[in-house]
TrEMBL record:
PROSITE patterns linked: UMUC
Annotated Gene3D superfamilies: 3.30.70.270, 3.40.1170.60, 5' to 3' exonuclease, C-terminal subdomain, DNA polymerase, Y-family, little finger domain
One MF term in the entry's GO annotations: DNA-directed DNA polymerase activity
Protein name: DNA polymerase IV
Organism expressing this protein natively: Pseudonocardia charpentierae
UmuC domain span: 4-198
InterPro entries documented for this protein: DNA/RNA_pol_sf (IPR043502), DNA_pol_Y-fam_lit_finger_sf (IPR036775), DNA_pol_Y-fam_little_finger (IPR017961), DNA_polymerase-Y (IPR050116), DNApol_IV (IPR022880), Rev_trsase/Diguanyl_cyclase (IPR043128), UmuC (IPR001126)
Annotated signal peptide: none
Enzyme class name: transferase
One Pfam match: IMS_C
Keyword terms of this UniProt record: Nucleotidyltransferase, Transferase
Reaction catalysed by this enzyme: DNA(n) + a 2'-deoxyribonucleoside 5'-triphosphate = DNA(n+1) + diphosphate
DNA sequence: TCTGGGGTCCTAGGACCC
DNA sequence: TCTGGGGTCCTAGGACCC
């Protein structure tokens, strides 16, 4: 039978940093931003010791340092995490020849592995042995009969979070979720527990009386289509039922867009500075486009005004191009279409590639 | 809690064409 | 001429995820 395994590396960023800084073991470590908690930035990862103080990812660094003044603050080192991640993905791909496994990467610290096997638990065990042996990084594995169930299964495989009150988490490193146990495991949980339902959607569903996964599963797709969108509405019901794509895609991922953005240490009040920042980002994005080897079809600019109002403007290029001067000039044209309202907190530039609709 | 950076996909309205 | 209906592209914004 075909099985989907979801591999999730434990504390990935913190683990990579600890490999480089073994002397920090056991200490509260906070990774994120420029590693300076007096500057703007948020926590990418907090070590378990830092979490004891209530520090968690997404929290502003300024808040983190207030909660845990003794923490070690490290800057995010994306190239290092990319390299470590690639090492893990190579190990996973190593199961291809022997197990017919296919790997679909979902970011630095996650991947789906699809394989036809009678012993998914055995494959999960071998992955949990081989990855640390080759990379010194540990992982949990969720087993499912599709991608959604495998992904959610991993939540139950992880060690229970301190603040989740042991809400059914078993934390043995592996967990299996299929059509057989979907309702008993997930039925009473809030819809927010589903991969793809966030706070906003959960609130909208709750307004319609759909609070739990079971209630959502029994929802009426047509009614939700009218309320929440022709495609999203029915999809949410499918999520409630635990249904999703079954086949793991092994083809290399092709980026749809490449972008860069920057939050300034202090808000920019002079539009000339905003233009200079946008031009700088445009040149970097153009270099990324060239590196990608595919021309950009469209460019977009994002401006976040103080205190936190975000606006976007975009333009389709006369023809797809990788030319830096054209991209930069178009970005500046688009930028000048913004209404200048407040000091500028952030500027972002994004290039979209020609859509390769299969 | 004064809220990063890198992405993906969906929606809805208007333009424009036949 | 007072007004249909479908299709597609463009654009801005929203929601979500890692």
């Amino acid at each position: 039978m075909y099985w989907v395994l979801h591999v999730d590396l434990d504390q990935f960023i913190a683990a990579v940093e600890l490999l480089r800084h073994p002397e920090l073991a056991g200490r509260p470590v906070v990774v994120g931003g420029h590693g300076d908690p007096t500057r703007r930035g948020v926590v990418a990862t907090a070590s378990y010791a830092a979490r004891e103080f209530g520090v968690h990812s997404g929290m502003p660094l300024r808040t983190a340092v207030r909660r845990c003044p003794d923490a070690v603050f490290l800057p995010a080192d994306n190239p290092a995490y990319e390299a470590a991640s690639e090492g893990v993905m190579a190990v996973l791909r190593g199961f291809g020849p022997t197990d017919g496994a296919v790997v679909e990467v979902m970011g630095w610290d996650e991947a789906f592995v699809g394989a036809t096997t009678d012993d998914p638990e055995g494959l999960a065990r071998r992955i949990r042995e081989e990855v640390p042996e080759q990379t010194q990084l540990t992982c949990c594995v969720g087993i499912g009969d599709n991608l959604l169930r495998a992904k959610i299964a991993t939540e139950f495989a992880k060690p229970p979070a301190r603040d989740d009150g042991g809400a059914g988490a078993v934390g043995t490193g592996t967990f299996s979720l299929t059509a057989q146990n979907w309702d008993v495991v997930m039925g009473d949980r809030p819809t927010r527990a589903l991969w793809g339902i966030g706070a906003k959607t959960a609130a909208k569903l709750a307004e319609r009386g759909l609070h739990t996964v079971r209630e959502l599963a029994n929802g009426e797709p047509a009614a939700l289509a009218a309320d929440l969108g022709p495609s999203l509405g029915p999809w949410y019901v499918q999520l409630g039922r635990g249904l999703s794509r079954v086949q793991v895609r092994g083809e290399p991922w092709l980026a749809r867009s490449r972008g860069r953005e920057e939050t300034f240490a202090a808000d920019l009040t002079d539009w000339a500075d905003v233009r200079a920042a946008a031009a700088d980002l445009a040149r970097k994005v153009a270099a990324d486009v060239v590196a990608e080897g595919r021309p950009a079809a469209r460019v977009g600019v994002k401006v976040r005004f103080a205190p936190f109002t975000t606006r976007t403007r975009s333009a389709t290029l006369a023809e797809p191009t990788s030319d830096a001067a054209t991209i930069e000039a178009t970005v500046l044209d688009v930028l000048d279409r913004f209404t200048r309202r407040r000091p500028v907190r952030l500027v972002g530039v994004r290039a979209e590639f020609v859509t390769t609709d299969e």
